[in-house]
């Protein structure tokens, strides 16, 4: 089959997600058959389970227990760390407080990030530096802080190994994106609770979206509800013990000129009386790196790069801070309105300029 024909050939139908073992990818810089498989899976579906990550099941269980404990606190204890009170997009958001594709998400969550000092605002300091800053910690659950900070470190190390494997798979120097992910880091972590919904109501746990960073490393409990969009429709991503679910973010799509695609995914709410919990780690470019570099893929891969996807409702910016702030403004309108009035106004103007058909498409995310 010619290169063009193979580039246009639809990916084979999948009825289950593939599993990648990080140990098989090794720590060396040598391209192995395991890397070829990673490149193919990443390009064809972009969602897979990751095993062999080396994180002790105990550490995972402890964090999952801590997440459940937090969401069981009384409302006032959760609101003590409300996201709306800081400009760093960190802290607690209640059910319906986050918007995806113009609709409220039926989940509550705490957003954390790398624990770093705030960059003081000033006339010469770009607004997106507001994304960096200290986390908010619940006084009602003081032990949460150590678990979260440990998870940020542990997962960052796994994400760095995985990114290196991706680069080798794409026949790049293993260090090609070192600069992009150098400290001070800009990775984010979300612990999430999806309360059950009675049938007949919205079941938008989180609406269809792409993740904004490079790679997402997700842990989910036994309930299920995560789905990824494929050419054949929505594919369930059922739970798998001690495995991460990995997906590709917009910044890796840009860096590979669309050879790798950020995947659209969503979560359907569990049924009434059931709760689902998940923990999503977003491995992201460092803000001080400014621009996402375009990797020079070898011709046989470059010829299959589809270019970054163009979505008028979600324009992609190669400028890291601009892209990251855009994503947060869209999702957390209360924080945006209070701390980023200019970006909030721009977002509102963009929404007002949509014609009804575009608005309907945005809400349904039908494409
Ligand atoms: O909870 C999940 O399984 C997925 C969450 C997600 O996609 C997100 O927060 O970006
Ligand atoms: Fe996501």
Automatic annotation (TrEMBL):
Cofactor: Fe(2+)
Lineage top rank: taxon: Bacteria
EC number(s) recorded for this UniProt protein: 1.13.12.19, 1.14.20.7
One GO MF term: metal ion binding
Swiss-Prot/TrEMBL catalytic activity: L-arginine + 2-oxoglutarate + O2 = guanidine + L-glutamate 5-semialdehyde + succinate + CO2; 2-oxoglutarate + O2 + 2 H(+) = ethene + 3 CO2 + H2O
SUPFAM superfamilies: Clavaminate synthase-like
Keywords (A to Z) from UniProt: Ethylene biosynthesis, Iron, Metal-binding, Oxidoreductase
PANTHER family: 2-OXOGLUTARATE (2OG) AND FE(II)-DEPENDENT OXYGENASE SUPERFAMILY PROTEIN-RELATED
Record-given protein name: 2-oxoglutarate-dependent ethylene/succinate-forming enzyme
């Amino acid at each position: 089959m010619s290169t063009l024909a193979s580039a246009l050939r639809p990916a084979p139908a999948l009825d289950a997600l593939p599993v990648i073992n990080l140990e098989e990818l090794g720590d060396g810089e040598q391209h192995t058959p395991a890397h070829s498989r990673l490149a193919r899976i990443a390009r064809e579906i972009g969602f897979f389970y990751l095993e062999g990550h080396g994180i002790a099941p105990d550490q995972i269980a402890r964090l999952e227990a801590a997440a459940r404990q937090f969401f069981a606190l009384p409302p006032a204890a959760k609101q003590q760390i409300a996201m709306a009170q800081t400009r760093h997009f960190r802290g607690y958001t209640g059910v319906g407080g986050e918007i995806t594709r113009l609709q409220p998400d039926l989940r509550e969550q705490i957003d954390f990030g790398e624990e770093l000092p705030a960059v003081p605002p000033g006339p010469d300091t770009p607004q997106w530096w507001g994304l960096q800053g200290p986390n908010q910690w619940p006084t009602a659950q003081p032990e949460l802080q150590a678990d979260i900070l440990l998870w940020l470190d542990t997962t960052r190390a796994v994400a760095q190994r995985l990114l290196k494997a991706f680069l080798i798979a794409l026949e790049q120097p293993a260090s090609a994106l070192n600069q992009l992910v150098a400290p001070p880091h800009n990775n984010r972590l979300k612990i999430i609770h999806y309360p059950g919904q009675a049938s007949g109501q919205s079941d938008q746990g989180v609406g269809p979206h792409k993740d904004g960073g490079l790679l997402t490393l997700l842990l989910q409990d036994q309930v299920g509800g995560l789905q990824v969009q494929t050419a054949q429709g929505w594919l369930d991503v059922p739970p798998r013990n001690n495995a991460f679910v990995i997906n590709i973010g917009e910044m890796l799509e840009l860096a590979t000129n669309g050879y790798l695609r950020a995947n659209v995914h969503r979560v359907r709410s569990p049924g009434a009386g059931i709760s689902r919990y998940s923990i999503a780690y977003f491995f992201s470019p460092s803000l001080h790196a400014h621009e996402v570099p375009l990797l020079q893929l070898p011709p046989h891969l470059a010829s299959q790069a589809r270019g970054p996807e163009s979505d008028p409702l979600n324009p992609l910016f190669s400028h890291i801070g601009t892209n990251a702030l855009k994503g947060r403004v869209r999702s957390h309108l209360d924080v945006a309105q209070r701390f980023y009035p200019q970006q909030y106004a721009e977002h509102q103007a963009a929404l007002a300029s949509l014609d009804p058909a575009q608005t309907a498409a945005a809400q349904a995310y039908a494409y």
